[in-house]
Amino acid sequence: MFSDSKSQEILAAITKITSEDVNLADCDLAEREVICDREPIHIPNSIQPHGVLLAVSVEEYKILQVSLNTFQMLGREPEELLGQSLKQLLGEEQVATISSCLSEDFEKVNPLPIEIECDGSNLTFNGIVHRNEAIIILELESTETTQEVDFFNFYKLVKNPISKIQNTHTLDQLCNAIASEVKKITGFDRVMIYRFDQEGAGTVIAEAAQEDLEPFLGLHYPATDIPKQAKYLYTLNYLRLIPDATYEPVGLIPELNPLTNKPLDMSMSVLRSVSPLHTEYLANMGVAASMSISLLKNKQLWGLIACHHRIPKKVTYELRTVCEFIGQIVSFELAAKEDNQDLDYKMKLKSIQSQFIETISQAQDLEAGLTQNPDHLLDLVGADGVALYFGEKITLIGDTPDEEAITAMLPWLEAQFNEDVVYETNSLGQVYPAAQENKAVASGLLALLISRVQKTFIIWFRPEVIQTVDWGGNPNKHVKIEEDGTLTMSPRKSFAKWQETVKGKSLPWKPCEVEAAIELRSSIVGIVLRKAEELTQVNKELARSNVELDAFAYIASHDLKEPLRGIYNYSSFLIEDYSEILDEAGIDKLNTLMRLTHRMEDLINSLLHYSRLGRAELQMRSVDLNDLIAGVLDVIKVSARDKQVEFKIPRPLPTVNCDRTQVNELYTNLISNGIKYNQKTEKIIEIGYLDQDDPIVIEKMLEYPDNTLAKTIFYVCDNGIGIRERHLESIFRIFKRLHSQKKYGGGTGAGLTIAKKIVERHGGEIWVKSVYGRGSAFYFTLQ
């Protein structure tokens, strides 16, 4: 059925499960149950006795291994067949047919009609062929009849089941219909639809059984009833038949395959012998024959069609093919039928999600959008509580553990995501024991990772729901300690309904709820990306506008200076050349014109300087602020008219990375203003920086999302006239003066605007605190 590479993949996967050496005496009870998952059931070295197995080399068609029942079924001793060519047993024509199948999918050609002469008569068999690397495995089953099951017979058998499947609308209807139809086709006493949960445990969700049988519908069965490696084999072989569970296994000779020197890999064998634990299990259930048909969804084992009979029962290969076909049809239908489950609830979730996403897209930030309608956030996944984690901030809504418990859980939770963005469990206390103390509100958890970098999570909680589970017998396997200290496991003897009260679990999260959470994250990411794109476009437009504005300011200020000089010069010429003609009023007007043009030129120079600040490239380097301030103060002391100024520097200033020229101008403007706008007899200017525990720093920290401020806050304080509160926002506007031109020595009103520009170009910000009549303090940061 599979190519060499596929066979190697199968063997590797099963070997991984079964290769670990385990000492049962060192295991606790939970670990002992895991040992069932390690039984090497793919290499039992024996078959069921209703057929014959031959292992043949691909190159020479030489018989390498045979089952020990060849004399009973073929009339030839096993030793007689070993080493022979398969042609001696089957003839040239039949071997040629097998050879032609090697390059095809064996599912398309099996079974092959095989005839073997025995004591003068021809025995007819169904030949089932598959290849495992360099070995051909041929299994022969006696045919009950020589009548060939053609297409029309096959069609009659599958027509009614397929019609019933097509007329079902829900998963329950589908499963009940299939259980009933398979029972009719096969004649088994009991046919069940057995569904696996996420932990591998199973539940009978549909059943068709003889009236005198005790119903198994609704019973649960532990994951260990069907070990992991058995579940894996069900994904390879879609049908498994045990016609007589009381059989005696038939061994193979030799025990090791001569080509591999290992036991024969029988993963794909239809005759492969069954684990003794499983035959004991069936006997304890009163089952003498069984057949299992795999149900797969998205290539994963979803469940089984399990058929039981109280006496041995043979099922022809053709009828098994019909059942396998029905199983595959049901597998295709599973996704559609499960999608139809809880359809009204799914529509409700979609409606909530649509409203929710609209709210988030219009909110100022993600946190505001998520918390604007708390009920929608809970109803989106059917939760009772939710915790929103943004960096270091936690917002709790509904019934949740306290903030301390959630903070302690976060490192563990973050490690659960790996490559996934969602993690869910309905038994949080089992996977995270510290959560057991909060099981009343947090037995179930559904966590959504929004951003790993920014540590943003949405964590939904569900409360404990104490449940009564009906098991098919006590699910704990019996363990017997032998005299030599070894442990022997055996399946339970009784399958009567056994009830267990389950605590510490919530209602399970439905797939549609988990999907709603994932879709929420996708929508959030989409909104964030869209807003980021819009912001990028706005920034591009703003940058372009700033460049154009700087260019305009530069050109305008440069070009305006020429006509101003002309006005000033002509006014001067008029006074000089026509002073005898002009009266006093005329001369005053010309002097006023000259004074205004001079002021206009000062304004243009300030504008030109401001525009150059935005265009000049910063010359960043390490600058000792102590040296820089010393130079600034030297210049100010020489040029200042008022000598009664005290400069205070409480402690040495740090070294910063900045443009020395621009920061020099920044301090010059702030210190000069402190002197200029000061009417005190003793003027005081203080220059320094703040510690991290300073109230001003702490207040500033609160403005940042993570409540941290990595930059140093510098300040220049004075005891001058101060600024009224209503003017605190406007003082940084260009050419904004709070006083008349003649007061406090005049000026253009551009000094603080230039200071702000310098700070912003260094990646910082500047602000002022002031008490009118007592003084001002200018604070700023640099990158």
What does this structure look like?
This protein is an alpha+beta fold and 783 residues long. The strands form 7 sheets. Strands 1-11-3-2-6-5-4 form a 7-stranded antiparallel sheet.
The main sheet comes to: 7 strands, antiparallel
Structural class: alpha+beta
Helical element count?
Answer: 24
Could you estimate the helical fraction of the residues in percent?
40-55%
Number of strands: 29
Distance between the termini: 69 Å
**Main β-sheet, spatial strand arrangement:** 1-11-3-2-6-5-4
Provide the fold topology:
Blueprint: H1 4-18, H2 29-35, E1 46-47, E2 51-57, E3 63-67, H3 70-74, H4 78-81, H5 86-90, H6 92-101, H7 106-109, E4 112-118, E5 121-132, E6 135-142, H8 151-166, H9 171-186, E7 190-196, E8 202-209, E9 220-221, H10 228-234, E10 239-242, E11 250-253, H11 276-285, E12 289-297, E13 300-309, H12 317-340, H13 343-362, H14 366-371, H15 374-379, E14 385-390, E15 393-398, H16 403-415, E16 422-425, H17 428-431, H18 439-442, E17 444-451, E18 456-462, E19 467-472, E20 478-481, E21 487-490, E22 497-502, H19 511-578, H20 584-615, E23 620-624, H21 625-639, E24 645-648, E25 655-659, H22 660-676, E26 683-689, H23 695-701, E27 713-718, H24 751-761, E28 766-771, E29 775-781
Parallel strand pairs: 24-26
Antiparallel strand pairs: 1-11, 2-3, 2-6, 3-11, 4-5, 5-6, 7-8, 7-13, 8-9, 10-12, 12-13, 14-15, 14-18, 16-17, 17-18, 19-22, 20-21, 23-25, 26-27, 27-29, 28-29
